Amino acid sequence: MQTHLSDQARALPRGEEAERILRTCVHCGFCNATCPTYQLLGDELDGPRGRIYLIKQVLEGAEPSAHTLEHLDRCLTCRNCETTCPSGVDYHNLLDIGREVIEQRVPRSFGERSLRAGLRAVVPHAGLFKALVNSGEMLRPLLPEALRAKLPRQIRTARPRPQSQHQQRVLMLEGCVQPGLSPNTNAAAARVLDRLGISVEPAREAGCCGAVDYHLNAQHTGLNRARRNIDAWWPAIEAGAQAIVQTASGCGAFIKDYGHLLADDPLYAAKAKRVSELTKDLVEVLRDAPLETLGVHSDLRLAFHCPCTLQHAQKLGGAVEGVLTRLGFHLTAVPDAHLCCGSAGTYSITQPALSRQLRDNKLNALESGKPQVIATANIGCQSHLDGAGRTQVRHWIELVDEAMDHPL
């Protein structure tokens, strides 16, 4: 589409990028057909095409309003539209640019500012978050239903991790919420990888990937977290670590973007590019591995929920399903598997009504094949779906670990 960005917009650090993305859009509207919020609300401004126009107007000089901010806030950033778009519009980067500009010009209410500040103060800090989860567990009977639903129905204690003994070595980001909500997930991944001849070295100095801050429009803070992680990983990378493995697809999607987001940083551009190249979702390691050596035996009937960050951001749709099928699990069909479950990082807290609608629709689809358990590949989706109290939701690698022959 034609654009005439204002001089102020052209002077933005990412002004040229925004103009390039806007010119890619041909206004076809295919994106609306797969946009979860457009399907729920039926409002053009709650679909990608409408949001692109809102951002375009602001960058061309129009004054944004609370109405503008509301429509951008409702976007899940699921990136389903990017999978659908025939023109390759880089929507999520345009959205980040637009959100940052509008956030600076439209004041939020005290309640919204407090909620977002609280999330940023708690969620990225693994120790604090885990302490709050444990406190919530003890006080569960006294908590209101809304808070009880955010707690895991069952916290599985991390099983022992194997000693590092293999020549093949990978790093693993422990994550910020996963150690509190599902501490056994990374331990299970380490056990499976050990059986495949790969040792996992946790990088204790690495913290939150930065996505929480970045997607709550504290982009500077989010990028500083990225820089700290790069510094934490770099010595091991120089020592020969072959990959940085993620068991949470949301973290993986964001870390794979480090190279782009820090491309103009003279101190970190090259390192960020290398980190993004080394970052792999766990399934990227397993799908090329000799899975028969795992000795998996299971007659479990399961439905797999493929997170948006796996299928739309990392373009790995079908990869986990392929691994699980090779291992002998019985997968049920899932209608509309491309649609978001409504978790979307902190979206389930900032947009609870829309999030619950999307969650219930997703669970109806997942349960349509009568699975015994639902598997997924992202802690946010896992916690959100399991919070409904319906079919149990687990990380897929835990199911693989439990089905392996473990020698005594």
Task: Characterise this structure.
This protein is an alpha/beta fold. Among the domains are: 99 residues, Orthogonal Bundle (Fumarate Reductase Iron-sulfur Protein, Chain B, domain 2), CATH 1.10.1060.10; 113 residues, 3-Layer(aba) Sandwich (Rossmann fold), CATH 3.40.50.1860. The chain contains 24 helices and eight strands. A four-stranded parallel sheet has the order 2-1-3-4. A four-stranded parallel sheet has the order 6-5-7-8, with helices on both faces. The longest helix has 20 residues. It starts with 6 loop residues before the first helix and ends in a 5-residue tail after the last helix. The model has no long low-confidence stretch (mean pLDDT 94).
Topology of this structure?
Layout: H1 7-10, H2 15-24, H3 36-41, H4 48-59, H5 66-73, H6 80-84, H7 91-105, H8 110-122, H9 126-138, H10 145-148, E1 168-172, H11 178-181, H12 184-195, E2 198-202, H13 211-215, H14 219-238, E3 244-246, H15 249-255, H16 258-261, H17 269-278, E4 279-281, H18 282-286, E5 301-304, H19 308-313, H20 319-326, E6 330-331, H21 347-350, H22 352-366, E7 373-376, H23 379-386, E8 393-395, H24 396-403
Parallel strand pairs: 1-2, 1-3, 3-4, 5-6, 5-7, 7-8
Structural class comes to: alpha/beta
Largest sheet, strands/sense/barrel: 4 strands, parallel
Q: Strand order, biggest sheet?
A: 2-1-3-4
Strands, count? 8
Q: At the first level of CATH, what is the class of one domain?
A: Alpha Beta
Helix content: 40-55%
Mean pLDDT: 94
Overall 3D geometry? Answer: globular
User: Span between N and C termini?
Assistant: 64 Å
CATH architecture of one domain: 3-Layer(aba) Sandwich
Low-confidence stretches: none
Strand content: 5-15%
Radius of gyration: 21 Å
- Could you tell me the CATH topology label of one domain: Rossmann fold
- Counted by DSSP, the helix tally is 24
